[in-house]
Design brief:
The chain is an alpha/beta fold. Helix content is 51%, strand content 8%. It folds into 4 domains: 10-81, lambda repressor-like DNA-binding domains (434 Repressor (Amino-terminal Domain), Orthogonal Bundle), CATH 1.10.260; 93-305, P-loop containing nucleotide triphosphate hydrolases (Rossmann fold); 309-349; 361-461, Arc Repressor Mutant, subunit A, CATH 1.10.10. The strands form 2 sheets. The protein has a 5-stranded parallel β-sheet, with helices on both faces. Helix 6 (102-112) crosses helix 7, helix 11 (254-266) packs parallel to helix 12 (287-297) and helix 13 packs across helix 15 (343-355). It binds adenosine-5'-triphosphate and magnesium ion (MG).
């Protein structure tokens, strides 16, 4: 049995020790008196290792005293490392191995090493694997010993979120002495990060509204706070580099765009930003969109649009997800066909297929896709539902109806193409992802099915 290394996460270490011991997850679970699901979640990094569990696992694996000590220490380390603020959902051990994306990783490495503009932005459809690549950025930066600041925006974020969360998270994780050195020249940073009050020199408080006392206006305070943030990231980078990783920036607060743009333009070239966004969710004309446009115009952003995985990589992802319980050729092929290269679909359909014999779409995937579809204008959604019942590829002629002028129909089809749901082919309009068609069709009651199909109750190809 090999010796554990302290650099591994608990999840990776446990998996390795189990394999070294020649045990399946079932066998380990049985010997440790745990459920297979618990062992699997621990190995995926989905679950925090409890002390009691770690002891049982160590016994079941018959670890040496030294190995046991490292397993316990790694579990403790993982517990401490777990972030409190919103953070990248996949920037941890649960990400699993990265499949494919060879050119993207090469580009990412070059970016982190300092090549090209300061911002690398991943775009692409929901579930296409943007967060997974950000997790890779975190891993590469961490592996190189570069400080990595991360945060993910959430729907409804306001103000400086998530950027300020990334900074706050760094403050929390940095030992006091190192932090004191980093904030030495950052007077005013407490205007953005109140947790630093007392640790940075104070500026006069802003007035709301302007009072007669000679104090800062809100604008002046904001500018000084922004400059302080620039000095802060420069100080964290020091003579090396710093990586700022931001996920789902389409939901960033209105002020976050201004702060990010200020940081990117003013901080030194050692600050490397990697971010991800869903193009369809960017609100045109929003403050954040304006800032992004401005950075783009200045040549400071390189955008990489992620595409679905090619067939061979899709198969590899299914295999990697299935792990010790491969699906079998038939089911594997069906998952790959339904998912059409979208990693989220591949992962979730594989998990569902592994858990039971049915090939139903897991409910959370149905919800996730449903939420995306809900963003469509109502008539476009209704049109897509109708198409979903007809076939994967539908000729326009079949859609022309008395109650809808043709140019209106074409406009709706255009919208569906912009949302990445349909592609135009020579034979007509085709659902890009069979799974989306399935979900649309499944959302219809039998009454409407009959109405639209003239008696035929099931969609067919
Ligand atoms: N290249 C890859 N190799 C292995 N797993 C991947 C790859 N790309 C994505 N995944 C996995 O597929 C799932 C979906 O990917 P991810 O969450 O990165 O997509 P996303 O584009 O960030 O989606 P969302 O629109 O929900 O933010 C995750 O479980 C992720 O770990
Ligand atoms: Mg994501």
């Amino acid at each position: 049995m090999s010796t554990p290394s302290r650099d591994e996460s608990f999840a990776t270490l446990l998996t390795r020790l189990r394999r070294d011991a020649g045990m399946t997850q079932e066998r380990l679970a049985d010997r440790a008196g745990l459920s297979v699901r618990a062992v699997s979640s621990l190995e995926c990094g989905d679950r925090r290792p409890r002390r009691y569990t770690v002891e049982r696992l160590a016994q079941a694996l018959r670890l040496s005293a030294e190995q046991r000590a490292v397993l316990v220490a790694t579990a403790e380390g993982d517990r401490r490392r777990l972030p409190e603020a919103p953070s990248l959902p996949t920037a941890n051990a649960s990400a699993g191995p990265l499949i494919g994306r060879v050119a993207e990783v090469e580009e990412l490495r070059a970016h982190l090493a300092g090549a090209g503009p300061p911002v690398l932005a991943y775009a692409g459809e929901p579930g296409i694997g943007r967060s997974r690549l950000l997790a890779e950025a975190v891993a590469i930066g961490g592996g190189w010993g570069i400080p990595v600041l991360t945060a993910a925006a959430r729907r409804g974020d306001e103000g400086y979120a998530p950027l300020v969360h990334a900074l706050a998270d760094h403050v929390r994780r940095t030992p006091a002495a190192a932090l004191a050195a980093q904030v030495r020249d950052c007077a005013g940073l407490d205007l953005l990060l109140p947790e630093l009050a007392g640790r940075v020199r104070r500026l006069p408080a802003p007035t709301f509204p302007a009072a007669t006392l000679p104090v800062l206006s809100a604008d002046q305070a904001r500018r000084l706070a922004f400059d302080a943030a620039v000095r802060f990231v420069d100080a964290i980078a020091g003579t090396g580099r710093l990586v700022l990783v931001l996920d789902d920036v389409q939901w960033a607060g209105a002020d976050a765009g201004d702060l990010l743009s200020h940081l990117v333009r003013r901080a030194g070239p050692q600050v490397r930003v990697v971010l991800a966004y869903r193009p369809a969710d960017v609100v045109a004309g929003s403050r954040f969109a304006q800032c992004a446009e401005e950075l783009g115009r200045l040549g400071m952003v390189r955008t990489r649009v992620l595409r679905p995985l090619p067939q061979s990589e899709a198969l590899a992802l299914v295999d990697a997800t299935a792990g010790d319980t491969p699906l079998g050729a038939g089911r594997q092929a069906r998952v790959v066909r339904r998912a059409a290269g979208v990693p989220l679909f591949l992962v979730e359909l594989t998990r569902a297929a592994g858990q039971d014999e049915s090939e139903d779409v897991p409910w959370h995937l149905r919800l996730a896709v449903g939420r995306e579809l809900a963003a469509l204008p109502r008539p476009v959604f209704a049109l897509l539902q109708r198409m979903a019942l007809i076939a994967t590829t539908v000729a326009v002629e079949r859609l022309i109806a008395d109650d809808m002028p043709t140019d209106q129909l074409l406009e709706y089809l255009d919208v569906a193409m912009r949302f990445g749901i349909l592609d135009e082919t020579r034979r007509g309009f085709r659902f890009r992802y069979p799974l989306v068609r399935e979900i649309l069709a499944a959302g219809l009651g039998p009454g409407r099915r009959r109405l639209w199909l003239g008696g035929k109750a099931h969609p067919h190809d």
